[in-house]
Amino acid sequence: MPDPQQPWYTPGPPQQPVPGNPYASGGDAQEGFGSQGFGPPTPPPPRRRFGRGPVVAAVVALALVIVAGGVYGLTDRGRDEPTKPVAKKSPGPSGSASPSGTPAAGAPELSHIPTTKEVAAARKPGEASAWIADDTTDIPKQINPVHDLWIVGDTAVQALYRKVTAYRLSDGAEVWSVTLPSAVCETPANPTPDGKVVVFRHERPDNERGNRCNQMQMIDLKTGKQGWQKKLDEPGDEDDTLIVYSAISGDVLSAARGQRAVTYRMSDGSRLHKVPSEKKGACFPTGVAGGAARLLVSSDCMVSMDRSKNYGQLREFDPRTGKLLWRYRTKTGWSFGALISMDPVVFTVYNNEDTAKDWRITVLDPKGKHRVTFDARDKGFEHCAADGGGDDIQPCRGASVDKGLIMLGGQDQVGAYDVETGKFLWGVKSDDLRHLYALRAEDGRSMRIYEAANSREPGRTFLMGPRGAGTETEVVKHPAATAAWEYEMFMGHTAYVDGRLVLTSTHMSGDENKKPVREARMLSFAASP
C-alpha cells in the first residue's frame, strides 16, 4: 500500500462539461499522473512467479507441513509467454489428469497446490483464513477462458472449458459440477434472480477453428440441474455465431452477434423479439447488458467511411416486450466503450480517431438523458483498469458504482468520483506495483479495497476513506502460504460477499509443463473469527 509519506490525491475543482462538447473536460485535464486510456491494454511489466522474499519463504514453509499428495520443486525463473493456441482434438468429457498430479516422464516438476487443510496448518498469527480449490480436469493446451463468476446462495459458480462447477463459499468444497459435450464459449455477467443462467457452448466437441458458438444450455446454478437446450437462431450467415455476447435481464436472455440481437424467455427458451437496427442498418447492435430487469443494447452507427463522422448509441428496451424506453447518442466521432453500472447508467466512451488513449466516463439520468461526462485520465486511470479480457461490454473490470461513488482502480491506484457531478473526491497512488480494486463503498465516502498480491508478498483487503495514508481499518491480511497462487490470479475475476473475497483467473493454460506454478482453480479469503 502507499507509503504514509506519499500524499493522497488532492481533489480538484469539479470537472464540468465544456458547453456543446460533453467529451471534453473543463480545466487542465491533461495534468496529473499521466494519460493512458482505452484500447488494447498496455501489458504489465514482466513479473516473476516467485520473488526472493516473503512469498518464497512462505511457500517453503507450507511445503514442510504438506504430508499428502507429494511436494514438487519450485522454480524462480521468469514468466513464460502465453502458449499459442494449438489445434488439437479435445479429450473426452471425463478426461482428467493423473490423481497425483505427477508430470509426465521427462517433464519439469510442477508445484503442488495445497489443500485447504494444508493452508490452515501453515497460517500465521494475524492472517486471514483461506481456502484454495483445485481442479485436475484435463483442458486443452492453449489459453482457455475462465468465464464469469456467479455468486448464488452459498456457492461460487463458474465455467471453464466443458465444465460448470459450484464451490461452497465457506470452505471451497465442490458442491456440484456439470460436464457439457463441448466447450463453453460465452456466459452472461449475471444469472436470473432465482439463480438460473444460460451458457453458450461450441457446436462441435473439437477445438478446431470455425467452431460456432451457437448451442444454448440453461442451468440451475442452485442445483446444477440442466434445463432446456436449443440452437441460437441464425438468420443469415451462420458464421455470425463465431462470436456471441449475452446478458440476462430479469427472466429474459439477450444475445448479440453479427450486427443483430435477439431475446429469449428464460423459462423455456422461446424467442421473444429481435432488437432492431436503425438508419437502414447503419446503426447495428454490438453488445448487450443486463442486471435486475433492465436491458441495455449498445450500437455502432457506421454512417461514413470517415471514422470522425460515425458515432455510437445506447438504448434501453423493455426486456419482455421489446419496447424502446430511451436512446442516448454519443457525440459524433465517439463510440460506446463498456458499461460500468446499470443503475445509474454509467459507461465509457472513446474517440474513434484515438481509441488507444482518448476515452471518458459518461453518466445518464434515469430517463437516459446526459448528466455528466468526465475525464479520469488526468489521475492516471486506464480504461477498465487496463483489463486484458474480451470485448463484452459488461462488466468493466476495475470500475464500479456504489452508494453514489464511481470507483476506479488499476495498477498502483484507486479513487472515487461523485456520480452526480463527476467531481473527483479522493484516491491514492502506490509506488509498489500493486493493483488496487475497490470492492464496494462503505461509510459515506469510504471504500473497501482489495490490494492484489505481487511477486514478493500476498495481498490484503481493508477499509479506507479520504482522511489520508495510514488510516486503513478492518485490515484482512491474506496468508503468505497462498501468495504464489493469489499472484497467478493477477487481474482476475473478483467477488466480495459477506466479508469474503473470492478470486479466480480469467484464463488458464492446459499446458502445465510450460508453467513453473500449477494454476489453482479458485481462491478465497475471510477475516478470522
Automatic annotation (TrEMBL):
Q: Which residues form the Pyrrolo-quinoline quinone repeat domain?
A: 154-274
Keywords, in A-Z order: Membrane, Transmembrane, Transmembrane helix
Q: Where is the segment annotated Disordered?
A: 1-50, 74-110
Q: What is a single Pfam family found in this protein's UniProt entry?
A: PQQ_2
Q: Which domain of life is it from?
A: Bacteria
Question: Where is composition skewed (Low complexity) in this entry?
Answer: 90-108
Residue spans crossing the bilayer: 55-74
Q: Does the keyword Transmembrane apply?
A: yes
Ranges of biased composition (kind: Pro residues): 1-20
* Protein known as: Pyrrolo-quinoline quinone repeat domain-containing protein
Species per Swiss-Prot/TrEMBL record = Streptomyces globisporus
